[in-house]
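---------- Forwarded message ----------

FYI, see the DUF3105 domain-containing protein record below. Original note from H. follows.
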Amino acid sequence: MAATRSANADRRARIEEMRRAEQARERRNRLITIGVSGVVVLGLVGFGTFVLMKKSDEQDAKEAAAKAPITAEKSWDAKKLGRNHVETAVKYDMKPPVGGDHHPVWMNCDGVVYKEKIAEVNAVHSLEHGAVWVTYNKSASQADVKQLADKVGKTKYTLMSPVDDQAGAIMLSAWGKQVTVDGAADPRVDAFFTKYVQGPQTPEPGAACTGGIGADGAGGSGMGQ
């Protein structure tokens, strides 16, 4: 009997020891899970904070660029630029025009590169919708033309076409704004895009740049040059 009681006591002791070991293991697992979860949460919080800060920095940089003056930029009083829709030829005071009366239909300007000249009266309507118009003459290098075409092709509310009789080799126009640049790598190109694609000068922000004429870069039609 004494031997049996001793054996039972030993068995209970082993069972208790095993239970304590299991409980300790469970506590360790819970602590590890909590620790890993905490690291993951901290990582997500840190990453989220980084993304928000980056977006904030990018927005600040964009706003700063939009406010910064562009060297040698020409401006016209937007209030004095006509905005009537006409279906007759229009004589503009600048080349390329940056505003004035224009055709009722706009040139498609959803990043469209036109290889032939387009009608000014239709392009001006695109400017009214907030587009930037990139133009070049035969003095522009093929490399610059290609680089600018690539940029326009990736940017909504822009269009590009040749204007043989313009004064500068490469010119950028928006409603009431214009600048002549030295080449595609000129930092004023990016600055002009940042500032004036759907910029504060736009008379009709958000108006369509598709559904007009000259889709697929096939060249324009319209009234007059």
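H. also flagged this: The mean pLDDT is 84.
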